[in-house]
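User: Structure please.
Assistant: Input sequence and predicted structure:
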Amino acid sequence: MYDLCIIGAGVVGCALAREMSRFQLRVLLLERGDDVGCGATKANTGLVHGAYSSPAGTLKAALCAAGNRMYASLDAQLHFGFRRTGALVLAFSAQQEAGLRALHDNGRAVGEEGLELLSAAQARALEPRLGPGVTTALHCPSVGVTSPYELAIALAENAVANGVSLRLGCEAVGLRPAGIGPAASGAGAPEGLVVSANGERISARFVVNAAGVFGDRVAALAGEPGFRIIPRQGQYLLFDRGSGEAVRQVIFQAPSPAGKGVVVTSTYHGNLMIGPNANEVADPEDAGTSLEALEGIVATARLSLPDFDLRKVITTFAGVRPTPDTGDFVIGPGPVPGFFNAAGIDSPGLTSAPAIAERLRDLLADAGLELKPRRDFRPERPAILVPKSFAAEEVARLVKETGPHRLVCRCEQVSEAEIVDALHRGIPVHSIDGLKRRTRAGMGRCQGGFCRPRVAALIERETGFPAAESIRLYEEHLAAKSRVRAALLRAQSAQEQVGS
């Protein structure tokens, strides 16, 4: 019998699990995938947004503003990676300039501080490589960059370390009220719910639906959901590490009804990244990329930053955002007592996640969940990665070492000790992809060509999962990406020939 069952271990579910681990509660976090943060959380722009773009009076605006303010202290505790950079929103026409003025006024209304409308010359003083068509820019100093999948992993690790139970590969397929008997924490509290998952019945006094793109389906298990999730895919191009030095801030373009548009940014780890587009898809798990869509992203991004080099693209990827038909986050009680939604959390959901967790905490308390603080709560989670900048000669020596100091990944300079540490932190990891998100092994220029067999061998040594199977599972999706990258390189060559 759990006090709380959270369905979905994306960034919102993990943030809620960690927040509720502060209290004397039995908390269960359910995830249908084989790792935490494997949906929209792992495939997005990784931005900590300012609140200027969400309409005043919406949950998005309030929770984005509150969540943004929480990131610095959260990173100090959990060490997932966060850097405040500031952002420019660019206009290329008089119509878009009017849009920037509206964003500025909206930002002031929601309490966003430091917003400033700049001339093209002022914008270029901040970002010298901006395209020639820029006429005006909106500057927002509160914007930052983070590593979204590392954040979800850090939240989940800390929640598990503080007593939360995590079940991976466990899909919720049914939900019903249950007469479990009087609630332990006082009159008026619901008697409980039963979640059916993997042939098992899980009893909980409260259930929170944080199921991402499947949020409306999970809500429907409890009755009429009252909202619909529209899967909206966004594709990205990621460039080699160090390429992010091309920009100092996050570069947006004036938004459209489809979203915030194509962004040019440095990732937290220093890779240039451009994207996304916004395309409704039928399959909520459609993470495929297409040359046509990527070429459109490239053409649009060149308006902001004309001179990036496609030869430095190391991979492409896509994520699917859970866009609600309500136009705002769906956070609150569902159709049966004890059931709460945290659904439709699209952009700025990553920014808002810590604040969403606090809002849900308060809603659950108001509904009868007694929150007794734990005296032994541990807010700190040590980092996995230690920053390194070895010279080439030192890298060549360390890849030949034996033992914990051996460099397993030479591109990202990841040691054997860091790989082993990531495998023993309370969340089962059996995949090369899971270790890549924790340690960056395989995220460099060669995309795992050097380190893949070494990582697989360590997985087998530490967990018993066969190395050959790890490699097979990881390589299944690489062939299609290689074909797309080759086409992009041909496009770069053609552009250079035209230029010459």
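The chain has 14 helices and 22 strands.
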